[in-house]
Amino acid sequence: MFIEQKLSLLFFNTMATKTYNYAIIGAGGAGIHLAMAMMADDFFSDKEILIVEKESKSENDRTWCFWEAGTGKWDALLHHSWAKGSFHSSEIHQALAMPPYRYKMLRSIDFYNHAKNKLAASDHFHWVQDSIEKVSAGSPSVLHGAQAQYQAEHIFDSRIDAGFYENKDSYTRLLQHFKGWMIETEEDFFDPEEFVMMDFRLKWKDSTSFNYVLPTSRRTAMVEFTLFTEDLVTDDTYDKILKQYFEEYLQLKKYKVTEVEKGVIPMSDFPFHKQHQNHLTKIGTAGGWVRPSSGYFFKNAEGYCQQVIDNLKAGRLPSKGVAQSRFRFYDSLLLDILKNKNEMGEDLFTSMFGKNSATQIFKFLDEETSLSEEIKIFWSFRSGPFLWALWRWFLG
Description:
The chain is of the alpha/beta class. The strands form 3 sheets. Strands 1, 2, 8, 9, 10, 11 and 17 form a 7-stranded mixed β-sheet that branches. Strands 6-5-13-14-15-12-16 form a 7-stranded mixed β-sheet, with helices on both faces. The chain has a 3-stranded antiparallel β-sheet with strand order 3-7-4. It has helices spanning 2-17, 29-39, 108-120, 162-166, 235-249, 298-313, 326-340, 345-355, 358-365, 371-379, 383-395; strands at 19-25, 49-53, 63-69, 80-82, 84-88, 93-96, 101-107, 125-129, 132-136, 141-145, 149-157, 173-185, 194-199, 208-215, 220-229, 255-268, 280-282. The radius of gyration is 22 Å and the shape is globular. Strand 10 (141-145) and strand 11 form a beta hairpin. 33% of the residues lie in helices and 29% in strands.
């Protein structure tokens, strides 16, 4: 034991005296996206990169779903994908015209294992399990960990700024929170080629809430209940809604729950982009990479990482132009409506999916539409709530 302690101390002291070119705090979706993008670019072949993550990343702690046209970067890791989808509300049952898109499902454990194996094979990437308690940004910057200190020329930090929690009354903020069950049936029940993107027929009170169904075989599916609300609900509430949805809407009574997944995603117009510093760049949720009006992240993160790398190669601040566009203004309007008229969520999404093709909606959420295409999407909504949100935006 004494020898192990001495070796551990020697290891951490060695890490502390070395200055890395870049340090990435957090090996979640954003941190791994960035590390893998750096590994794939020759610009970083002579750079020393530190990754500090407090968890072992040895469990499946989340599931990412995203749409993509054609072959994608992570196709070999996918758990499942779908060519067909549907949208349900109390007014419509809409089949989603998706070509050339597929909806793709990636389990985090597969993403983590793939990344750890790749990074471990490189002499330039160094993965440390530690919890960063404080950062002193400078030249070089210092990362104060629970077990050691580390130095880097530039830090990419996925930790959310304390101001987000402390000043919540000074910006618009909702929580996207959910609980899902991976279930297994005794007989064939699901169509593994079609998923349900949103089903508003069963809601919690007067809220923006819905179920979605992701079949992975004829006998297995992930079914989740999601809410866009200011406050969380009790664990029993999720379970009650899920059970009711199975019995009344899916007409399914015999099933076994094999996995449970829960999560909370902040949806906010908090100015995350103002948290960047000369030697520190915020990434992931902390960098504003999550779309405030929808909570979508994974595919956008891939594009933002490439933008960060292009900025580094051009000698610009890594954060320049990342997650800053007219789409953030659109998000602010939608978020304002969902906060002040939370019961309108079903109406908004019914208008969106009922009057626009899924391909246009996907392009819009990927920030790839033209201004004329965006006007067409907004024209499909009732104007009153947006005019009221616009008025509040002008008033500040």
